Amino acid sequence: MVTLKINTKAKHTISPYLYMQFMEPLGVADSSVDAAWDFVENEWFPEVIDKVRELSPTMIRFGGCFASYYHWREAIGDYKKRTPMINYAWSGLYHNRVGTHEYIDFCRKIGAEPFIVANMESEGIKFWQTPKNDTVRMGTDDEAAAWVDYCNNPDNKERISNGAKQPFSVKYWQIGNETSYATVSHRDNTRHCGFTAEACLEATQRFAAAMRKADPTIKIIGWGDTHRPHDGKNWCEVMSHAEGIDILAFHHHFGSGLPDSPLTGTDYRRDAEKTWLHLMNAHKSLDTQILKMKEFCGSKRLAMTEGHFSLPGRNRNEVLSSWGAGVSYARCHNVLMRHSDKLDIATLADFFGNVWQVNALMIPTPIRAGIPYLQPVGHVMKLFRAHQGENFVDVTGGGSLDVTASRTDNKIFLHVANTDMLYGEDIEFDLGGKKIASVKTYYISEHPEVEITPCNTDVFNVKETETFDNRISIPPAAVAAVEITLA
Asked: What is the pTM of this model?
């Protein structure tokens, strides 16, 4: 028996956008957006909409690397007249059938806040700005400002003529995507660097001024990652001085951080205990990265606009379809919660597709041949999202349990990951003398080696228990959301 000591006093408000997902056309890498769109009926597949409503992301980000050569006007108006584009990062030809209007429609159908990434001069990378086919893919501050006006100005004639009388009211805008990263050309495998940190600062401020002129009320996110800067500068520290920027973005793609990792190819299937050890260690690098961002971001808030495992292997590694990865992702989400004093936006998965195991939602293709299903990370995000408090509260103790706590009114919410794959844990609650009316536990508990496939899509269903005292049990390798109602 272990004791969880919960201080029920609220410390700070938790942003609802720590359950963000992002939408990016990924070309031949993963059909992603295309897999969710019914090209016969010209609408989103209803099966996908229904499943995403279950996941219930609070925010949808439209962009990624794709944004670095995207011209938004090519994807509005009559879809028969839209201009196809080459998908330079992911290869293939993108038809632009899904553009601003379709993206906003998706957000409204599932009740998510829209969040758009603008093309900031193609991250300064010349082979994206002016590719060999003589097109110009470099985005300008005027283009970004016009996009803000198109979305948010109630009187924008261009949007109204395209059938949308009411403004889209897009509050969150990111300028650039991974501006400090070097990009590798798919043709000759050479590394290409774009802006320096100072050039990024200048361009970001210029774009922000133009976009705020179109709508002074928007929230603007600039790129400030400390990861792999090609010019040797701490971009977070440089960008912390950016005028007109509310939030600094970073990405984190992680492994176990330990030597001799089995999270490679199919090696993870050889030794379950070793694989579990490495999966349970993965949250540490995420914590380290956020601590670095907090150290240098100054008064700016933070957004992890992409984040997930990055592992070698087929389809970004099938270990991510295992329940062991689900428990690991639960630990990572608890890291996000512990940094919610500074972190406003975050995700732990790509959104949907039919190839990558880092997706939250898998879509069998063709769609009519199978039912969309959530990956382990999607199940964890769905569970925690459904049982989330508004304010962070402190919790200590727990033995093998990784626990965070939050509160809304007279309810305490616990997010729990049992890091022991063999043994459960009995818990008693110490709430400083406060009385308990009831305790409901919603949990997923499977052997860590169990993997989800299109043939067993109900394997990670949630179980539920209720008690009326201060004790509960958490099974081995379980992820649980606990609701404590105070008397």
From this structure: 0.96
